[in-house]
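Suppose you are handed only these lines of text.
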Amino acid sequence: MKKVLVTGGSGLVGNALHTVINESTSGDEWIFVGSADADLTDSNATKALFDRIKPTHVVHLAAMVGGLFHNMNNNLDFLRKNMQINDNVLQQSYEHDCAKVISCLSTCIFPDKTSYPIDETMVHNGPPHPSNYGYSYAKRLIDIQNRGYYEKSGCMFTSIIPCNIFGPHDNYKPEVSHVIPGMINRMYDLIHTVKDLPEEEKVFVVFGSGKPLRQFIYSIDLAKLIIWVLDNYESVEPLILSVDEEDEVSIFDAAMAVAKAFDFKGKLICDTSKADGQHKKTASNKKLRNLLPNFQFTPFEDGIKASVAWYIENITKARK
Ligand code: NAP
Ligand code: GDP
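From them, the structure of the protein bound to guanosine-5'-diphosphate can be written out as follows.
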């Protein structure tokens, strides 16, 4: 029986894992921790957590996380905090003889100038997009460190590379959020708090040109894939966990899906004075498809509908 410690257990992906675990009948023990349980930038606090829990396996999700604008304004913090957290968690996992650690990279960390589709072999092939170099280099170092532990002691510390994630329990804080929770929060406010206009005359602003392309994965799908990786994937090499290339959508398409889920009757315009970030990061999920051919991803619009419904139902407790 495994004893699985989930760092970042209070976040978007941590909550999705919790939901999926609750629905499963596995006999494993799962412990979900957030920053209130231990500040993982602190090596003593991290050691105390591992001494107390004594995990056999770790799903390492904890990180300083945010969307394009949060990254652009805080590159140094993203670099330092994430390097500290990752070093503390990986070293404690090593010292506690954990049989497996799965850490999270992101398709954001791939080189800016690259050929497409991007695959797992390309993580270190060139500088990342300048908007998020702090997060990117800290995340790339996880892969380097995993290889170091493997070389030194044969540890099965691996990494997954999700595309842009969305779902219930997202972070909706406007200055921090990724595009989907950011738009859900702003559209809800436009519909419910702007009272002096009929809805048909309201205008929703999509930041940037709306033209960048993104692959989005529903958090519950990602949680199911993480459990599969925990039970079945035995390699230090990173694994991209993304929807298919054909499922990539433009930011404007994503805004329209959010508007449809809210049944918003107003107009959508783009504010091109705001940054677009990287135009696209199209990633290949061929390696995943070869290993797990029959996985069914939740259709994008269904995931958006469920996420909007969750936000409306949980408006008082959502992180915003
Ligand atoms: P999230 O919702 O922002 O949650 C972040 C988690 O990290 C929270 O549980 C938070 O704890 C914890 N945390 C942050 N700083 C900490 C610290 N100093 N000590 C201990 N815990 C700390 O993030 P997420 O979207 O679930 O992301 C999970 C993983 O996926 C991350 O590694 C992220 O880099 C990666 N990822 C995310 C995306 C995306 O689109 N969201 C895409 C690709 C990869 P508290 O909330 O309790 O403070
Ligand atoms: P990325 O996928 O890592 O680049 O990060 P985001 O999830 O923050 O997506 C950024 C893209 O969405 C950029 O092209 C932004 O201009 C666009 N965007 C449109 N509206 C919003 C919003 O409300 N919040 C955020 N974060 N981005 C938005």
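What can we learn from it? Residues 75-95 form the longest helix (21 residues). The chain has a mean pLDDT of 97.
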